[in-house]
Amino acid sequence: MANAPCLLVMAAAILAPTSADRPASTGTSSLDAIQLTTGEPKVLFQPTDQIQYFPDEAIAVLRRRPFEALITVSKSTWLFQGPSIEEMTPVTEVLAPGGPGDFDNGYVGVGGVIERRGEILAFYHAEDHEQMGKISYNDVHSFYASIGLAVSNDGGRVFEKRGCILTSRSSKQPSGAEAQGIGDVSVCLSKDRSHVLAYFSDWTDMKAQGTQISLARAKVGSADNPKAWKKWHNDDFTEQGLGGSSTPVIDLRPQGGDAHAPHVQYVTSLGCYVATYCVLS
């Protein structure tokens, strides 16, 4: 990224409250309700020979006291634990890339978790690296991304992969020199807690729309069923999660920019969803 002709910043948006039938929309509330303060930078964990290049996705917090979280390290996801986030240490790798031919053969990075009836549902950014080139602006391995699901029944120590739940409408273009597919997933419950909302970076049509942020949803009880997922497209949840089209819900094309790497949560005290994301312009 250091040599890329771009500006990368963090942005925030207020997303208007949504029902189970309507998505959150931007631009209807004021960011004045949110105040952010920062202190001096603090190193929480020093890299080791085994633990390098992290966190590469959002930190998926399992518990706060004691602190437990799933953190993407290089190409896989690890469980970190400690009395607090300041004292966390890596415990074990819980999810690793799949084998040749698998949709997640190059990378497995959990971006968010949902608890359901004693289970932990972990949604992850999956990358297929086979027959792909290098990204033009940073020489990192290019990929075809999709979104996978893994489930734990023991509090996050052991996960079972359940397969791919969301894919792009565009198929992989081998030897491509740009990101492809959809990924960088962030999940939260809808306001009424009936649905899982999955926000994701959408690289489906880079020439026409660049990278923007799209949305899919499924009922909580069927979130592990790929057929239950529907993408937001043309003002409704009508498109299939596997291969369907999507309309961006955070779209920076009018400003000449790209939006990616979302993190969205419903904040009860504010009565709205709050999203942070990266801006590339």
Q: Classify the beta-strand content into a percent band.
A: 35-45%
Unreliable stretches (pLDDT < 50, length at least 5) are: 1-9
- Strand-pairing-aware structural class: mainly beta
Rg, nearest Å: 18 Å
Q: What is the total tally of β strands?
A: 16
Summarize the biggest pleated sheet: 9 strands, mixed
**Shape type:** globular
Mean pLDDT: 87
Number of helices: 1
End-to-end distance, in Å?
13 Å
One letter per element, helices H and strands E, the order comes to EEEEEEEEEEEHEEEEE
* Helical residues, percent: under 10%
Can you walk me through this structure?
With 281 residues, the chain is an all-beta fold. The chain has one helix spanning 206-209, and strands at 8-15, 60-63, 67-73, 76-82, 89-95, 107-116, 119-128, 144-152, 160-166, 180-189, 195-202, 212-219, 230-232, 237-240, 258-267, 272-280. The chain contains one helix and 16 strands. The chain starts with 7 loop residues before the first strand and ends with a strand.
SSE blueprint and pairings:
Layout: E1 8-15, E2 60-63, E3 67-73, E4 76-82, E5 89-95, E6 107-116, E7 119-128, E8 144-152, E9 160-166, E10 180-189, E11 195-202, H1 206-209, E12 212-219, E13 230-232, E14 237-240, E15 258-267, E16 272-280
Parallel strand pairs: 8-10
Antiparallel strand pairs: 1-16, 2-3, 3-4, 4-5, 6-7, 7-8, 8-9, 10-11, 11-12, 12-13, 13-14, 15-16
